[in-house]
Specification:
38% of the residues lie in helices and 28% in strands. By secondary structure, it is of the alpha/beta class. It folds into three domains: 4-84 and 164-194 and 333-386, ATPase, nucleotide binding domain (Nucleotidyltransferase, domain 5); 86-160, 2-Layer Sandwich (Dna Ligase, domain 1), CATH 3.30.1490.110; 197-328, Nucleotidyltransferase, domain 5. The strands form four sheets. A five-stranded mixed beta sheet has the order 3-2-1-6-11, with helices on both faces. Strands 14-13-12-15-16 form a five-stranded mixed beta sheet, with helices on both faces. A four-stranded antiparallel beta sheet has the order 7-10-8-9. The chain starts with a strand and ends with a helix.
């Protein structure tokens, strides 16, 4: 019998993480077969700067995964992160097509397309889109408007975009490493599948994924993402500041940052260094929430994940700064899994596996598969031109 194995691939600036999960009949939660982490090479701030180095490190992670699970990794679900990932909220409207003015699914699709036509995405590619709200003849509609009657339908759509050159490089690197890409998902949205509940997303929350060189956030309300941003600052900046401040090796500075070792450094100075750089990260998030009009207004608070979530006392610091509930969230996996996830740095890779399962439901896919296939076709044409 064919095994239903899903592979989540999270290519970070510092580390590549691969989670292999298996869905078994009758189980909605997958069994985790393997957790593989390898040093990432050839990337900066989430995008590729040395192609061959990136391909080599991705291949190493996939080969190790194959060794553990005992089967070939042919397909992966890929997380998209990096400083060029962003979202835009765009509106568009259409005249209802039926003579009796009844709204159909075709009208909804046309309204979404009208929104996309108003989107300026020069050098950008839409990787996901979420209809957020509808208006019918100027009045806001709760839920989907199918079956209602009116003359003008307007849609408000959140588009997740990514730099087209960076996307091509990333997809080409994964394909060159020997894996076919089934889907791509924005990294903070993938993490949300592993660490948040429907109740939290409905009430309103912000997910902060603190990586090594970037921090990405996703803001949720009414169960839907309303904004996504990536900031060019991460936990490595804190490590560097500690190393410079105390003139110690980076390895020692990293352990001090996460509280792994007792240090002989003055605690007051250490707190000041961590507080200063962490405040910079929090300022980026807070300013974005202010622009959205959501500062202090998210009942489910801030949910912290990613490798940077290991910073000592980060929960208390976040609570004090945002005046909101704050917690570090670690994914919960099936008890029969071979591996248990013990820190939140695996949230994205594991969330990719869960998001794929979610996409198999009756709800429409959120991934722009047509665009992905077109980009991949261009990549293969480019790679063939490079071959002797």
């Amino acid at each position: 019998m064919t095994r239903n194995i899903v592979i989540g691939l999270d290519i970070g600036t510092a580390s590549i993480r691969v989670v292999a999960c298996e869905y078994k009949p009758g189980n909605s939660i997958p069994q985790v077969l393997s957790l593989v982490k390898k040093n990432s090479r050839g990337l900066r701030r989430g995008y590729i700067i040395q192609f061959e180095e990136a391909v080599s490190s991705i291949r190493e992670a996939l080969v190790e995964t194959e060794r553990i699970i005992g089967t070939r990794v042919k397909h992966v679900v890929l997380a998209i992160g990096g400083s060029t990932l962003e979202s835009k909220l765009i509106e568009g409207g259409i005249v209802v097509s039926k003579a009796d003015n009844e709204i159909t699914s075709n009208d909804i699709n046309r309204a979404i397309s009208a929104s996309e036509s108003n989107l300026d995405i020069t050098n950008k590619t839409v990787i996901q889109k979420f209809p957020i709200a509808y208006r019918l003849d100027g009045k806001k509609i709760i839920g989907r408007p199918i079956g209602l009657k009116g003359s003008k339908l307007e849609a408000q759509v959140l588009f997740i975009t990514y730099s087209t050159p960076h996307l091509k490089d990333l997809l080409a690197a994964v394909e060159a490493a020997g894996a076919h890409i089934d889907d791509i998902i924005a990294a903070p949205l993938a993490a949300s599948e592993a660490i948040t509940t429907r109740l939290q997303k409905t009430a309103g929350c912000v997910i902060a994924n603190i990586g090594s060189q970037t921090t990405s956030i996703a803001v949720f309300e009414e169960g839907l993402p309303i904004s996504l941003r990536v900031f060019p600052i991460g936990s490595t900046d804190i490590t560097n500041d500690i190393a410079l401040g105390f003139q110690i090796p980076l390895e020692e500075a990293e352990k001090i940052k996460t509280g792994e070792v007792d240090n002989n450094t003055p605690q007051k100075k250490l707190d000041q260094i961590i507080e200063a750089r962490l405040s910079d990260i929090f300022e980026f998030i807070e300013n974005h929430l202010k622009r959205l009009g959501r500062s202090g207004l998210l009942p489910a608070g801030i949910i912290i994940t990613g490798g940077g979530s290991g910073i000592a006392e980060i929960e208390e610091r976040a609570k004090h700064f945002f005046k909101l509930p704050a917690r570090i969230s670690i994914p919960t996996v099936a008890n029969n899994s071979r591996n248990q996830i013990k820190d939140s740095s695996w949230s994205v890779a594991y969330g990719l596996c869960l998001k794929t399962k979610d996409n198999e439901s009756s709800e429409p896919k959120l991934i722009n598969i047509t665009i992905i296939r077109r980009v991949l076709a261009q990549i293969w044409k480019w790679l063939k031109e490079l071959l002797p």
